[in-house]
Amino acid sequence: MLKYTLQRILYMLLVLFIITLMCFVLIRMLPQTVLPAGDPHTAIVEARREALGYNKPYLVQFGIFMKNVLTKFDWGVSEVLYFGQDVLTVFLDKLPATVIVNLYSIIFTIPIGIGLGVFAALKKNTWIDYLISTLTMVVISVPSFVYAFVIQYVFCYKLQWFPFLMKSGTDWFSPSMIWSMIPAVMSLGFGVIAGFTRTTRAELTEVLTSEFMLLARTKGLTKAQATIRHALRNCFVVIVPSIFGEFVGILGGSLIIERIFSIPGVGSLTINAINGQDYPMFMLTTVFYTAVGLAAGLVVDISYGFIDPRIRMGSKK
């Protein structure tokens, strides 16, 4: 496992390096943002451009960029959105909103999805199973931003239970803030619930028809006891690693959701950086999403070995 883990980490870093290089070169090939005359921060941005070698070949610029990131963790200054401010400072100010909203989505939706999947598997080939399976496929097929508009129309406009937009401020755990997050959490959560319902139902259905389950029943265990002690344990070998990967799926999908509900997070920052051609800011957010995605894939792969001893034993051969 140690050798496999080190190899996966090296591959992850290599892929991250290649993607960073590609994004950097493509961004530097675009026209530079015209700086406003007379602004006191213009001199700061021009000095940073000179230090970063904007007039030098792309590979030299990339070398300077990587040196600053690795030695100083310096990602540059904003050239449009937060003119003259350090992009890392702005990014860290926006990160809590994204993390909190996605964390609430995971906490509340994953148990519901797993519960519905277990219920559908236990009611296999009944009208309940058919209903849950049909609804699951329908929900998975619809993008999350469609649910956002439906939720805003029904719960925010017609019923007026929730505000249209997320409450401003940094009191993340106050009742009013949590209440304002519910529409966004619901929009992100529908797809998660459907995904885990489908995965859990498929895995548990297969396990329940295995021979060792028949053996457990012949030894005197009831269906509920056999399901809890043996079936769910084997089923969670696949489900638990999926939880890690699902976090990245929500994080990537929140780009549009954050914009719809005015969540002051990384997703909105990324879209604003693209629209405003703030290249240093876009570079940081792009590397962030790439790194999180690669890291989550690494965690999912490694977690299989720790959860299922058979995989660990197989890796030693």
Rough outline: globular
Question: Count of helical segments?
Answer: 12
Distance between the termini: 11 Å
Strand content: under 5%
Mean pLDDT: 80
Order of helices and strands: HHHHHHHHHHHH
Rg computed from alpha carbons, rounded to a whole number of angstroms: 24 Å
Helix content: over 70%
Sheet/helix structural class? mainly alpha
Main pleated-sheet profile: none
Low-confidence stretches: none
Number of strands: 0
Please describe what this structure looks like:
The protein is built from twelve helices and no strands. The chain has helices at 2-28, 42-51, 58-72, 87-122, 127-141, 144-158, 175-208, 211-218, 223-260, 266-276, 279-307, 309-315. Helix 6 crosses helix 9 and helix 9 runs parallel beside helix 10 (266-276). It is globular. The mean pLDDT is 80.
